[in-house]
UniProtKB/TrEMBL annotation:
SUPFAM superfamilies: Nucleotide-diphospho-sugar transferases (SSF53448). It comes from bioreactor metagenome. This is PGL/p-HBAD biosynthesis glycosyltransferase. It is an enzyme of class 2 (transferase). Transmembrane segments: none annotated.
Length: 252
């Protein structure tokens, strides 16, 4: 089997605090078939200086004004030529230098490269310190309907064949990645749980900082795919479960 080319895409804006560790985690990969694409939104800090320091390992480096995060991610998609696309934004990292190598080695034994690869996620703070595993675990079986329960797989641990990846919907400012993952899953025939930690995710993204607005956008997306009444009922159950868990914890 011919091993696949992974297009790893990083989008940045004024990310000098976090960018270097992301770049190093990609460039240190032992797996040889990687193209690294870095899309910058015309940063005003030292982001470009850091990127240029590693320019020899970056396949495509573009810096220009954009219309926001998802516009920049669309630019990355359009520049990608790999078999798979994988978004790893500033501050996010691949857990080990052999993460991709080990994943592909397991796939080689299976004799098939699925449409979607997904796995677990660790959370890190602004200094790169581990905050432990993400609360939502990746389900053993994943379909587009699974996402009615929320973003069950972190975007940075979700890898999809480029030919199946649509543009991000710019009508959503904060959680277009949620909509994008659902679309990818609807287009996919083979979806594979790697049972690996695929990313360290910086818990300081737009949807984390703007939690209330992001939940509103996610609700709109859920209603679009799963129907308004089922989503209302489901959110009622979420609320009951949350407050019951809080009550039990308070009594312990």
């Amino acid at each position: 089997m011919i091993q696949p080319l992974f297009s790893i895409i990083t989008v940045t804006y004024n990310a000098e605090q976090w960018l270097e560790r992301t770049i190093l985690s990609v460039l240190s990969q032992s797996y040889p078939h990687i193209e690294y694409i870095l899309i910058d939104g015309a940063s005003k800090d030292g982001t470009l200086e850091i990127a240029n320091r590693y320019a020899s390992g970056i396949t495509c480096l573009l810096s220009e004004p954009d219309k926001g995060l998802y516009d920049a991610m669309n630019k990355g998609l359009h520049k990608a030529t790999g078999d798979y696309v994988w978004f790893l934004n500033a501050g996010d990292t691949l857990p080990t230098a052999d993460t991709i190598y080990r994943m592909v080695k397991r796939l080689d034994k299976r004799g098939i490269y699925p449409d979607v690869l997904y796995g677990e996620t660790n959370l890190v703070d602004a200094d790169g310190r581990s905050l432990g595993a993400r609360r939502l675990k990746a389900p053993k079986k994943l379909t587009w309907k699974s996402f009615r329960m929320g973003m069950l797989v972190c975007h940075q641990s979700f890898v999809v064949k480029r030919e199946l990846a649509p543009d991000y919907d710019l009508n959503y400012r904060l959680v277009a990645d949620y909509d994008w993952c659902i679309q990818c899953l609807k287009r996919s025939n083979t979806i594979h749980h790697t049972h690996m930690i695929l990313s360290n995710f910086l818990e300081a993204g737009m949807s984390t900082v703007n939690r209330k607005a992001s939940l509103k956008e996610r609700y709109e997306i859920m209603c679009r795919y799963y129907g308004k009444l089922p989503v209302i009922v489901l959110h009622g159950w979420f609320a009951v479960r949350f407050y019951f868990a809080k009550w039990v914890k308070g009594r312990v």
